[in-house]
Structure formats: C-alpha cells, structure tokens
Automatic annotation (TrEMBL):
Keywords for the protein's UniProt record, in alphabetical order: Cell membrane, Membrane, Transmembrane, Transmembrane helix, Transport
GO cellular component: plasma membrane
Organism: Paraliobacillus ryukyuensis
Membrane-protein topology: Multi-pass membrane protein
Family matches, as CDD domains: TM_PBP2 (cd06261)
Protein name, per record: Carbohydrate ABC transporter membrane protein 2 (CUT1 family)
Main location: membrane
InterPro entries the record matches: MetI-like, MetI-like_sf
GO aspect biological process, one term: transmembrane transport
SUPFAM superfamilies, alphabetized: MetI-like
Gene3D superfamilies the UniProt entry points to: MetI-like (1.10.3720.10)
PROSITE patterns given in the database record: ABC_TM1 (PS50928)
Chain segments annotated as transmembrane: 7-29, 73-97, 109-130, 142-160, 181-203, 260-279
C-alpha cells in the first residue's frame, strides 16, 4: 500500500485551515452560547463557546411575550419566498432574451444593465419613485425594487451562453416555440446557476431591513424580523441597564438586552444556514460554469 507523504507545506496548510475554521466558527458559537445562557450569569462574563448556565428563557421570552417578533418572522419568510421566486423568474427570462441573437436591442439593454451597477440615482430619487408608484406601506415594495438586478442577470446570461445553440435550433425545427424552449430546455439545463442566484436572492431578501425602515415602518403588519432586530440592537446599545422601550427591547425575569439580542441574532441566522447545505453543490457548480465560456 502506498502511503502519502505529507510535506511541511501540507502540515502548515492544514494548521492554517484549522485556524481559519476556528476563527470563522467562534463568533457564531459565542453568540449561540450567550443566547442559551442565563442572563444574570452572562453578566459575569467568561462565556465562550459553551453556556455555563443553560436555559431557553431568552427564546421563550421572545416568542411568548412579543407578538410582533413572531409576525415579523413570518413576514420575513413571506418576502423571502415570494421575492426569490419572482426574482428568479424575471431574471432568467431577461437573461434568456439577452442570449438570443435575434433580439434587436441586445447590446442596448446589456449596456443599460451594466450601467446600473456603476451609477445610482440616489436615496431621494428612489424614495420619490417608490412614493409615486404607490408602494409606500405596500408589500410590493419588498418585491418590485429587487425584482431584477444586473449582477444576477449577467451571471445567468453567462451560464446560458454555454448551452449549445443546436439544442434550441433542433427544438424549433420540431415545432417548439420560444416559450417551450425556455421552459423545457433552457430552465432544466440552467438549474445550477438558478440555484446559485436563488441563494443570493434569498439571503438578500432575508437580511434586508433598510427598505422596511424607509417605506413600510408605518405599517406594523409589514414589519420584518431584521427590522425588529435592528431596533433591539439600537436600543440595547443606547441602554445601559434593564429598561424597557416599547416592543423594541424585552427585559423580564431571567432575560436581559444582551441575551435577547444574541437570541434574536441566532433566530435570524439559522434559517439561511439550514437552506445553504441543500444548495451548496449547485452554488459551486453555478459559479464555475457561469464564469467560463467554452
């Protein structure tokens, strides 16, 4: 049996990678430990990656005493699901159109897309546009502004350019129209890049809170988990003791602003962490194949 000989470089590289993993996981494990630790005990300090006085009190307080957080959590899930699905549909359709050689305005549309990556109208024009469209305190304000982004379209287009044109021409000779070719040929072959962009969109939608602050904070039914989390973080930074400011900060019994803050951070992070492993293989494949032309 041939045994692989490890060089000094291999050993050093392994140690460096172990160090990187530890540095990457430690902040998350520390937050998890604090969220599962008794708030009074946490005030003593010394919590690293394992809770010293284990308790679910922080999570019970969040879901049991604050209806707005639960509603915000559901709204975040809703906007993430709807925003991801509609974004994928719109981006793939536009990308497919730009791959068609018979599309007259191919270059013009492509140029405008790239231009939006470098030039922005600014916050005030954006707000005025959203207001004129009647999207203030409207659920669609979470969907329409993020429906199509230049980066996503370019990635999908680069991937679709690798699909053999012969497949589409053969399907057209068999009587298939453009819509059939798109749904029956292009979409199945583009699943890796679609999964990649879906992950991008889901993470973006899930983490958004500034649009809620600008356009939907007057409507309590449209509040999102990230927005409520930002209010808690903001009030926790201002507060120096156990004070309560509306629904923005929760202090009761065995909980404290720091413990509640860590628990909500875990709640906001875990859903994306649960989704990523199922899309990881598509994520890697989509990026590598979409970046190289044959």
């Amino acid at each position: 049996m041939n045994r692989k000989k490890y060089t000094i470089f291999d050993i050093v590289l392994l140690l460096v990678m172990i160090g990187v993993v530890i540095l990457t996981l430690y902040p998350f494990l520390n937050i998890l430990a604090i969220s599962l630790n008794n708030a009074i005990d946490t005030a003593r300090g010394g919590i690293h990656i394992w809770p010293r006085d284990f308790t679910f009190a922080n999570y019970i307080e969040i879901f049991g005493s604050n209806d707005r957080l639960l509603q915000a959590f559901l709204m975040s899930i809703l906007r993430t699901v709807v925003g991801t699905i509609t974004g994928i549909i719109a981006s793939t359709m536009l990308a497919y159109t730009l791959t068609r050689r018979d599309f007259v305005f191919n270059r013009q549309v492509g140029f405008i897309l790239v231009l939006t990556m470098f030039i922005s109208g600014g916050l005030i024009p954006d707000y005025m546009l959203i207001r004129e469209l009647g999207l203030i305190n409207n659920f669609m304000v979470y969907i329409l502004p993020l429906l199509i982004t230049a980066f996503n379209v370019i990635i999908i287009r680069s991937f679709m350019d690798n699909i053999p044109i012969a497949l589409m021409e053969s399907a057209k000779m068999d009587g298939a129209n453009d819509f059939t070719i798109f749904w029956k040929i292009v979409i199945p072959l583009s699943l890796p890049v679609i999964a990649t962009i879906a992950l991008f969109l889901a993470v973006s939608q899930w983490n958004m809170w500034f649009d809620t602050y600008l356009y939907a904070r007057a409507n309590e039914n449209l509040t999102t988990l990230q927005f409520e989390l930002m209010k808690i973080l903001d009030n926790a930074n201002i507060s120096s003791g156990d004070i309560t400011q509306g629904n923005a900060e929760i202090v009761a019994g065995q909980t404290s602003p720091q413990s509640i803050k860590m628990a909500i951070t875990i709640i906001a992070t875990v859903p994306i962490l649960l989704v990523y492993p199922f899309l990881q293989k598509y994520f890697v494949t989509g990026l590598t194949l979409g970046a190289v032309k044959s």
